[in-house]
Design brief:
The chain is an all-alpha fold and 179 residues long. The chain has one domain: MetI-like (MetI-like fold). 80% of the residues lie in helices and 0% in strands. Helix 4 packs antiparallel against helix 5.
């Protein structure tokens, strides 16, 4: 069950899997640059581009966890006790598959922070009246090249601290998890 077997659901699952493979094969920054160049530079477009290029990482992990969990003993026991497939899916498979996805979300969040800063550094991020780390780094890069490193240091430290703090959430979640 829950696999990509024959029939219309199997075709949809296989097509979705190959689409995720295609999106994941593209580098994140290039995909973001293409989306922003087509639809413009504003925070909504950047957020949607971020979601579009980073969602395959979560989708693939969720699919892997569902495929792994569906063969566990408690799912087989629930199936043998006569529970419907929908109840097994919603009560046993999805709750046990979502924990690794939630843990991975903090790593994806850190990747998103770096992605947004990278777009801002390249000049296609959020427009200038809004403070953004990538724009600050781009402004400080010219100064750092001539020896004035302090305008670039503080945005780099803030960016590094934010990504580190997001990764610490994963550690906190994994220690609190008790099944």
């Amino acid at each position: 069950m829950y696999g990509s077997k024959g029939g219309p659901l199997g075709v949809i699952a296989a097509t979705l899997g190959r689409t995720i493979d295609l999106v994941q094969a593209l580098p994140v920054m290039i995909g973001g640059l293409v989306i922003v160049s087509f639809f413009g530079r504003n925070s909504v477009v950047i957020a949607l581009a971020l979601a579009l290029v980073l969602m395959p990482f979560q989708g693939r992990l969720l699919r892997t966890e569902v495929l792994r969990t569906r063969n566990d003993g408690f799912v087989t026991a629930a199936r043998m006790s006569g529970e419907s497939e929908f109840r097994i899916l919603t009560r046993h498979v999805i709750p046990n598959s979502c924990a690794p996805v939630l843990e991975n979300a903090s790593a994806i969040f850190g990747m998103g922070i770096i992605f947004c800063a990278g777009l801002g550094f390249l000049g296609v991020g959020i427009p200038l009246p809004t403070a953004e780390w990538g724009n600050m780094l781009a402004d400080g890069a010219a100064d750092a090249a001539v020896g004035r490193w302090w305008p670039a240091l503080f945005p780099v430290l803030a960016l590094a601290y934010s990504v580190w703090a997001a990764s610490r959430v994963t550690t906190f979640i994994s220690r609190r998890r008790r099944f």
